[in-house]
């Protein structure tokens, strides 16, 4: 280990703002209080209680939890929606605290074990586009460090130890990892950045965690260990599920932002990731990239100068124009990687709209740029004002907690609540049950509503 504890803490403190800017914080006082209380309780009985642990909920639908060196631990609202009791949460909390106390993140960063492919907020893109992952490069690298299986096994063991120590039944941790694996299989792969993409499944994880739990509980009265299903589900009522349309959403290959009131088309079959600070788009082969961000400048000229300077671009051509009634500037510029000498070409549209200046980047390898121009132009030149009230007033989906009126199967309850047939499997998954699971009168379960 080449990193001191002071360095670990400094890394976490330095990169926490980038993580928060990337995803935003989810404002839910009850849930935030819960994860703070449980996190600090667990931190005190961990192997490094002196670390300044912080626990935060990120406003992202991605199912993930991760930690930075020094004690910064994050849960997405996406993973919180998939827990079905406090014990599942406590197991994953212990697992992430285990990565911190065992210095796995610091160790991985010391070895610089970052994948050769760059994952930009969830998109897979060529590493030659690295400069355009604007939001805190070190934070992104920390986020996508892939733990080894030995690290995962050790964190599983610590997760069992820590969650048991604060009174939870850690066998539920094994059940949750089983649910994550089922999600991966249903998706036909891993939609990055999900928990299993950076936390590879050690062999026989389910059996191993159960065996570790039996050992940890050997001298404990098991009846005293908590599950906390009802209390946890009650906290979830009203939680936003999936993408929050208020922050921007895709519908029929069109991106809409209700609050900033703009829209633009997205090329067919391109992946899209939307974060509070940028919209990211890329084809599945990763050979191009489009980004929409806000410029930190007051004029188009100042914004264009900042783009050229910040990205070390050599200007090829530039012109001013009017785009759908908005003042704009278009630039073509090149960037050469100093180490590899590989050249990329960048089309930039700077658009002044509603008192803000938007940076629209289209990035491709120099030799592929001409082939990508039609895609870039169709998207950027069709940046327009959003006026459709139906698109502006679109409501998010939320978790709603229901109580079974009688003993019956989950499937019959979901159909009684008029859940769509094509979402029954998804609903079974987020409930942690099979559709034929029998619920008794008064049992709580989740449905998805729009409000």
For this entry, give a set of tags.
3 domains, 7-stranded antiparallel sheet, 16 helices, 38% helix, 451 residues, 4-stranded antiparallel sheet
SSE arrangement:
Blueprint: H1 5-23, H2 29-44, E1 54-58, E2 65-68, E3 72-76, H3 77-82, H4 86-101, H5 104-111, E4 118-120, E5 123-125, H6 137-143, H7 149-165, H8 171-187, H9 195-198, H10 205-216, H11 229-236, E6 240-241, E7 249-251, E8 254-257, E9 262-265, E10 271-275, E11 278-282, E12 288-294, H12 300-310, E13 314-323, E14 326-336, E15 343-353, E16 356-365, H13 369-380, E17 384-385, H14 389-392, E18 397-403, E19 408-409, H15 410-416, H16 424-431, E20 438-439, E21 444-450
Explain briefly what this protein structure is.
This protein is of the alpha+beta class and 451 residues long.
Give structural notes.
With 451 residues, the chain is an alpha+beta fold. It folds into 3 domains: 5-239, no CATH class; 245-392, Protein Transport Mog1p, Chain A (3-Layer(aba) Sandwich), CATH 3.40.1000; 410-450, no CATH class. Helices cover 38% and strands 25% of the residues. The chain has 16 helices and 21 strands. The protein has helices at residues 5-23, 29-44, 77-82, 86-101, 104-111, 137-143, 149-165, 171-187, 195-198, 205-216, 229-236, 300-310, 369-380, 389-392, 410-416, 424-431, and strands at residues 54-58, 65-68, 72-76, 118-120, 123-125, 240-241, 249-251, 254-257, 262-265, 271-275, 278-282, 288-294, 314-323, 326-336, 343-353, 356-365, 384-385, 397-403, 408-409, 438-439, 444-450. The strands form 6 sheets. The chain has a 7-stranded antiparallel beta sheet with strand order 10-11-12-16-15-14-13, with helices on both faces. The longest helix is centred in the N-terminal third of the chain and has 19 residues, at 5-23. It is globular. The N and C termini lie far apart (50 Å). Mean pLDDT is 88; it is low at 110-124, 134-144 and 189-193.
């Amino acid at each position: 280990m080449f990193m001191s504890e002071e360095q670990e803490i400094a890394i976490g403190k330095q990169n926490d703002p980038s993580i928060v800017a990337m995803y935003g914080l989810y404002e839910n006082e009850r849930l935030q209080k819960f994860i703070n209380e449980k996190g600090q309780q667990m931190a005190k009985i961990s192997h490094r209680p002196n670390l300044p642990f912080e626990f935060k909920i990120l406003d992202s639908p991605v199912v993930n939890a991760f930690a930075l060196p020094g004690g910064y631990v994050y849960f997405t609202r996406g993973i919180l929606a998939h827990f079905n009791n406090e014990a599942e949460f406590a197991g994953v909390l212990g697992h992430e605290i285990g990565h911190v106390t065992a210095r796995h993140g610091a160790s991985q960063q010391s070895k610089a074990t970052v994948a050769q492919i760059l994952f930009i907020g969830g998109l897979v893109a060529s590493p030659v586009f690295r400069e355009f992952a604007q939001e805190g490069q070190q934070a992104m690298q920390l986020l996508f460090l892939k733990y080894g299986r030995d690290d995962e096994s050790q964190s599983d063991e610590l997760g069992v130890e820590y969650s048991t120590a604060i009174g939870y039944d850690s066998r539920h941790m094994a059940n949750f990892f089983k649910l994550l694996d089922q999600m991966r299989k249903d998706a036909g792969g891993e939609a990055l950045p999900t928990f299993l993409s950076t936390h590879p499944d050690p062999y026989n994880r389910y059996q191993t965690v159960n065996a570790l739990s039996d050992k940890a509980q050997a001298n404990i009265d098991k009846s005293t260990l908590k599950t906390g299903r009802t209390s946890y589900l009650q906290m979830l009522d009203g939680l936003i599920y999936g993408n929050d349309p208020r922050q921007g959403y895709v519908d029929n290959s069109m991106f809409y932002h209700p609050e900033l009131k703009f829209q633009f088309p997205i090329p067919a079959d391109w992946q899209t990731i939307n974060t509070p600070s940028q919209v990211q788009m890329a084809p599945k082969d990763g050979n191009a990239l489009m980004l929409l961000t806000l410029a930190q400048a007051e004029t188009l000229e100042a914004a264009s100068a900042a783009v050229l300077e910040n990205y070390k671009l050599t200007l090829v051509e530039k012109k001013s124009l009017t785009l759908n009634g908005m003042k704009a500037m278009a630039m073509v510029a090149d960037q050469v990687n100093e180490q590899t000498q590989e050249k990329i070409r960048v089309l930039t549209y700077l658009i002044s709209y509603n008192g803000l200046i938007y940076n629209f980047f289209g990035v491709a390898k120099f030799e592929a740029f001409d082939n990508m121009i039609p895609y870039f132009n169709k998207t950027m030149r069709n940046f327009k004002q959003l006026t459709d009230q139906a698109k502006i007033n679109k409501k998010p989906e939320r978790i709603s907690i229901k109580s079974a009126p009688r003993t019956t199967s989950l499937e019959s309850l979901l159909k009684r609540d008029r859940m769509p047939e094509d979402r029954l499997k998804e609903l079974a998954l987020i409930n942690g049950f099979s559709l034929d699971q029998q619920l008794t009168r008064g049992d709580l379960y989740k449905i998805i509503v729009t409000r």
